[in-house]
Amino acid sequence: MLFQFEKRNSASRALILATPFFAIAVTVLLSSTMLLLQGKSLHTTFFAFFIEPFESTYAISEIFLKFGPLLLIAQALAIGFRAKIWNIGAEGQMIMGAVVASSIPVYFTDSESIFLLPAMIILGALGGMAWAAIAAFLRVRFNANEILVTLMLSSVALQILYYLLLGPWKDPMGFNFPQTVMFQDAALFPPIIFGFRLNYSLIIPLIFTVFVWIYMERRFGGFQLVVGGLAPNAATYAGYSSGGAVWKSLLIAGFAAGIAGMSEVAGPIGQLQRSVTSGYGYSAIIVAYLGGLHPVGIFFAAFFLSVIHIGGDYALVTADLPISSVHIFQGLLLVTYLASYTFVNYRFRSRKAQREYIESSAT
Amino acid sequence: MQNEQKPLLSLSQLTKIYGSLAANDLIDLNVFSGSIHAILGENGAGKSTLMKLVYGVETPDAGEIHWNGQKVNNWNPAVARRLGIGMVFQHFSLFETLSVVENIALTIEGSRPELIERIRKIGADYQLEIDPMAMVNSLSVGQRQRVEIIRCLMQDLKLLILDEPTSVLPPQHVGALFDALRKLQNDGVAILYISHKLEEIRELCDVATILRDGKVTGTVDPNQSTAQELATLMIGRSIPKIDRHDSQNKTKSEVLAIRNLSVKNLDPFGADLRNCNLNVFGGEIVGIAGVSGNGQQELGRIISGEELNSDLNPSSIEMFGQSVKGKGVIERRDLGFSFVPEERLGRGAVPSMSLRQNSLLTAFKKGMLKKGFIQSDRVAEYTDQCISEFSVKASGSSATANSLSGGNLQKFLVGRELCLQPKLLFLSQPTWGVDVGSANEIRRKLINLRDAGVAILVVSEELEELFEITDRMYVLRSGSLSPSMKTSEVTPDEIGEYMIGEKREEMDHAISV
Predict the structure, then answer these.
(1) Are residues B65 and B164 in the same domain?
(2) Using one digit for the tens of pLDDT, what is the confidence trace for A108-140?
(3) Separation CA B70–CA B83 (nearest Å)
């Protein structure tokens, strides 16, 4: 080998910031190639992806509609990821949040109480937390790998959702469609602008972001959590609980995902139905990484990915792209990001340069 | 005479680069059959890397390897073994849950009865007796080493490489190993003997190549040179001897007291602690000698509070006159206790975190928190203080822990704990993998601290170290502590007897019959 990876003495700050942009550039390049091979027009596609989402108030409001849950879940996931606790089942936690929260409007169809919505937020959070708690318990008690457990629990959550929609919770007037009744207004977040789907649930992710920033960047508790996940033995040595790190990061994620799921059923969807998550639970993983696992970075990454989502919808129509193109774009983004991130901690150096460097530093 | 002979193994200009570090830099080395050739150097001088190159575990970046005058390409462990090179690693490569013969059958061909027969025969020839049917986990470290050596001898052995073979042996077993090696030498086998112990090399070896910072600094006849000369080649400067003096102001009350401590270990391969008694007074350094794996880990975790055993008697562990049963790490630290564990990365420090964050890890009570908010100025200040007071070589307080060398990280960790101004300090293997210079500095700091009245407990495998700094010593073997001995009144051989123990001897005997 002419070149060799060499570990940097400390991570390069400039590269941490540059990496997401580099990843986006490479992704655009790779997907352009793919588009050209498909015989699509680059101009139309990228216009649809990056310009059309900003061309109307409606499109912009839709960006922020996506932005909310992505931001909320990604912020929570990043806490765990920093501590190397890999909860990739936010999807399932989101479903359970939506399911548990929906129990109120499903059983109290006529209630117009002002406590309906707050109760649903609390139940949504509890639903997500309960689902994440299963993984936390199995990890702490039996050392069961949380990647597998959370992922598989997502499938279980989906089956529970299907069971409820096809059985006890099915709307009796719904022509046998697998969905619940439409929720009454008291069970819905009011829209920010009348006539658009964007609603006040957006406030929650914004407040949450501030809290996460304070917790992770300023609070000792956040530090202890990261230590507990990164180096359990160091945590025990210092007197922190390492099981606590697993519990905290999973419960925080369950909390956020549960509320995100609740916000969907109490927002744009307005009922519990099969496609309750829109894949936010998985997209949020990409957001968390693209944002460098940092609360501020995640804020921008969530916005960027929301644009891609909406742009993807436009691209389906204007550029006649298949839906999988959007998924490929997202996937490429994560892969190139993770690959480029290597350079934050490592650098390439030719054998010859290395040799010369050592000789020069020796003298 | 040897110089007229052709070298069995010849390395020319061998170079291996890791990152920005040349672990081996243009190494030339000739090894002759029938010679015990020492490779001498400090930790980090490149000894282990060189042996990995010779054994083919690593590929050199430049340079050539010649075997019997022939250049060998595509060097790898399989080729090395075929040529007759055997290696006994510092950390044994045996499966604990398999028997001796099963372990050997993994690399040596032959039917089981055949192998058993050969193991017995080699054992008898070289006085390396071992029960072929014994499970490896039931063997002492010395016996495991025998298994490794026997495994090498079962091939057509031309060159045997031993990496720090005596570091794990009690003094009494060293003689037997040397006898076996001398017999091999007479049979015409070349031996590469890696060590940093000067006396041992002078006793055993007939050539010594000294490495420093990855370069050969000299090849000498160890019997013709004094230990001082060898040390100078090895370190590059002479190390000031520690001014050893006994404790002057020992306090009257016990700072740490362990009484009749017995703990059953849930791990089948771990050691039970049996009726341990130990005390440490202020102003003295107390050592615990013994080979690792005899309960050091278990005892350490109970003293540090990392393991809280609810079955303990309240009086079985006391600090500053009060029972600390059920008191966690942080509560013990509040009392004035401080601890430096043997694993630096992953336990004493979070590898990927900066030195600042690693200060925060244990020193957070030093004004680093205000209502749960981290005071980063204070953290930086504390970290800089540790770095400067303990002359830690780092690119700054934001350097990550894993970017530091072992010695520097250890200095930092000891510094971090000392800056807490503990009244009771517990260190486990304080100079493991630490270069001679740093080790010396650390030891001197400990003596100063003792003179200032601090109670210090040191667990160490290195007898020399314990003799250099302690006032009293215990030996931990099979989970039992020996009676306390005054360092000035005891010899290494006496300590060694405790390390082996009468009972252990009987057990060895029982296994080998």
Answers:
(1) yes
(2) 988 889 999 999 999 999 999 999 999 999 999
(3) 12
* Stretch among A11-15, A74-78, A260-264, B451-455 having the lowest mean pLDDT: A11-15
Phi, psi of A59 (to 5 degrees): -60, -45
Q: Is residue B179 part of a domain?
A: yes
By the CB < 8 Å criterion, does B395 face chain A? yes
**pLDDT at residue A9 greater than cutoff 70:** no
- What distance in Å separates the CA atoms of residue B166 and residue B181, rounded to the nearest whole number? 12
Task: Say whether A110 sits in a helix, a strand or coil.
Answer: coil
Asked if B361 lies within 8 A of A227 by C-beta distance, the reply is: yes
Domain carrying residue B78 = 2-84+156-235
pLDDT tier at A2 (50, 70, 90 boundaries)?
Answer: low
Minimal-distance CA residue of chain A relative to B400: A10
Question: How many other C-beta atoms can be found within 10 angstroms of the C-beta atom of residue B321?
Answer: 9
Residue B285, pLDDT score: 95
Nearest neighbour of B346 by CB, restricted to A4, A234, A362: A234
Is A219 in Cβ contact with B400 (below 8 Å)?
Answer: no
Residues in chain B within 8 Å Cβ distance of A219: 372-374
Check residue B415 and give its pLDDT: 93
- List the B215-220 sheet strands across, edge first: B85-88, B159-163, B190-195, B36-40, B207-212, B215-220
Of A6, A11, A234, the CB nearest to B350: A234
Count the domains in chain B.
2
The nearest CA of chain B is from the CA of A295 a distance in Å of: 17
Domain shared by B284 and B407, yes or no: yes
